[in-house]
Amino acid sequence: MAAFMRNNGLTLTIFGFFLLFLSAESVTGYHSYNEDRQDHHWPRVSYGSYIVSGSFLESTMENWESEFLEMAAYVVLTAFLFQKGSPESKSPIDTGSDESRSAVTSRSPWPVRRGGLALKIYKRSLSLAFCVLFALAFSLHAYGGWHAFNEQQQMHGERPISLPDFLGNSHFWYQSFQNWQSEFLGLGAMILLSIWLRQEGSPQSKPVEAPHEQTGQ
């Protein structure tokens, strides 16, 4: 158990924080949601009902969607674009392929040993996974946002709208764009600041003694 915790400590800690903050979001969102309902003279709902409501689904998925979009873009763009001096980038003068640097062995992943279509998919599996996760989160954001929007419409005596109409509504895209821009701002700041700044012991940073123009680690 001690070895498992040490070998997987980063993942366990990150997902621990994720569950902690997701729980906090759900509790505070539940109280805020019921306060809004009471302001409009609507009855309170249970915590379980709130968890499956469009309001919770919308607020959660719009953030997940932006994270997965950021990661998909990052994985794809770093495959062929460079930033000299950043540990987040490959070296501009390194033109070698992954295949030329790593020999296939009996311990290589199954798709590598199999070759063909399996290998072609595996070569792009990380970006494909993030794209699928983005598409799922985007769809759930749209679905949850549609229900939440129509609930607000009813609270204010307005008629509900269809899902296609909601997808053409500025409300939906405003939520998406305000999250997307912040993700790319944070990613861009990481790429640029890591050229000149250091964090000793972190693989996201170059060695403290490394020159600013050195790319990668």
List the helices and strands and how they pair.
Elements: H1 2-7, H2 9-39, H3 47-51, H4 54-77, H5 98-101, H6 110-114, H7 116-123, H8 125-155, H9 163-167, H10 170-196
Describe the protein in words.
- The model has no long low-confidence stretch (mean pLDDT 92).
- This protein is elongated.
- It contains ten helices and no strands.
- Helix 4 crosses helix 10 (170-196).
- It is mostly helical.
- 67% of the residues lie in helices and 0% in strands.
- The protein has helices at 2-7, 9-39, 47-51, 54-77, 98-101, 110-114, 116-123, 125-155, 163-167, 170-196.
N-to-C span: 31 Å
Question: What does the largest sheet look like?
Answer: none
Number of contiguous helices: 10
- Could you say which structural class the secondary elements and strand pairing correspond to? mainly alpha
Shape: elongated
What is the radius of gyration?
23 Å
Helix/strand order = HHHHHHHHHH
Mean pLDDT: 92
Number of strands: 0
The percentage helix is 55-70%
Strand content: under 5%
Low-confidence stretches: none
